[in-house]
Amino acid sequence: MRFLILGLLAGLLTETFAGAEPPFKVYQFDRDQIPRIDGDAADWTMVPESYAIGSNELKDTLRGTENDPKTLDVSVKVGWVKGLNRLYFLYEAYDDYWDFGMPGMHNDILEVMVDGDASGGPITAAVDPKVKFRSWEGHLMQGVQAQNYHIFTPSVEKNWAMVWGCQPWALEFPWSNAAQHFNFKHGEPGRYTLEFWITPFDHAPMEGPKKARVSQLTEGREIGLSWVVLDYDDEKAGKNGYRSFNNLSDQTIVHSDADQLRRFTLMPQEDEALRAQWSFSIPDPASRRVVFKDESTGEVEHWLWDFGDGTTSTNQHPVHVYAEGGLRYVVSLRVGNASASNRFSRVWEVCLP
Ligand SMILES: [Ca+2]
Ligand SMILES: [Ca+2]
Ligand SMILES: [Ca+2]
Question: Cβ distance 292 to 160 under 8 Å?
Fold first, then answer.
């Protein structure tokens, strides 16, 4: 009995501890700074080093060993863009033996698992005792509510990744895109750069993207995400012959179980510039009542709305009733603080009967 209680307590403590780990950060790119997927990392230099996740965070959970940067040294940065449901990645790696001479799974691999709504649960059938792993039923559930990408690093004479499940369409544009840069040959040491984006799905069935539900990425939200670097260093080692299993999670089963993913926060922009922005709605056109919503960014201290009918407001989110109908209102919002100001207008968008 005492052992049972101790066991339960240890379980609780472990769970609390895992849950208490601070989340990693996903960098928010401005919409005019979206990375170009070309294998050139120059458009990531603005991302602070506090966003980089290095080899020191990885452990070989199969062998219980620390990563040796002389044989493999990697860095990953993850980004997002408000309004796009995509996760952007920059993967920079040194390997003393790049292994990509075979057409199948034997290849240096970055394995990325993503659970866009952080629901947890199975990624593959390996964790569901009700479903036979190598069965058609198992195949149809894999990758549906959280996805696992085996990304071939480098990919030569094969598709850029394998998505472990029934949704190979997720490897196609515009659901994903990838570009790599390297100049080593098979078996050589060297540096490798990969840029890619993937789309996280709450539901990604075999039927294809029309039946899929894309995860909605919003500022401040936490997602489930993790990766494992499978370091193959010799083609003679054969199937599953990787030298190390470099895991960002402390659980090997993370490849199949979204409960074991790390938490990542979709961050607001760093040092956000002062920029006026707003939206509006007209719930009942006949009343000519317009609901304005301030969406400006930066340190706003004051607002000045010009409704285009000769009236103004200094409220942040004003509601304005137009005396006359019209199709040609120009509405603007000027925002400001002690050192800067910015204006944003919408021309002939507010239309009333
Ligand atoms: Ca680029
Ligand atoms: Ca999910
Ligand atoms: Ca290798």
Answer: no
Beta-bridged to residue 201, according to DSSP, are 214
Query: 49 C-alpha vs ligand 2 centroid, how far in Å?
Result: 29
Ligand nearest to the CA of 202: 2
pLDDT tens for residues 134-162? Answer: 899 999 999 999 999 999 999 999 999 99
Cα separation of 204 and 113, whole Å?
A: 14
In the chain, % of residues over pLDDT 90: 85
**What spacing in Å lies between the alpha carbon of 108 and ligand 3's midpoint?**
5
Calculate how far, in angstroms, residue 183's C-alpha sits from the geometric centre of ligand 2.
37
214 & 314 share domain:
no
* Nearest residue to 148 (alpha-carbon basis) of 128, 129, 130, 166: 166
Q: Counting ligands in written order, which one lies closest to the CA of residue 99? A: 3
Cα of 259 vs centre of ligand 1, distance in Å, is: 32
CA of 26 to the centre of ligand 1 (A): 17
Q: Scan for tokens 């190598």, then name that residue.
A: 134
Q: pLDDT confidence of 20, banded at 50, 70, 90?
A: low
220 in a structural domain: yes
Whether 64 maps to a domain, the answer reads yes
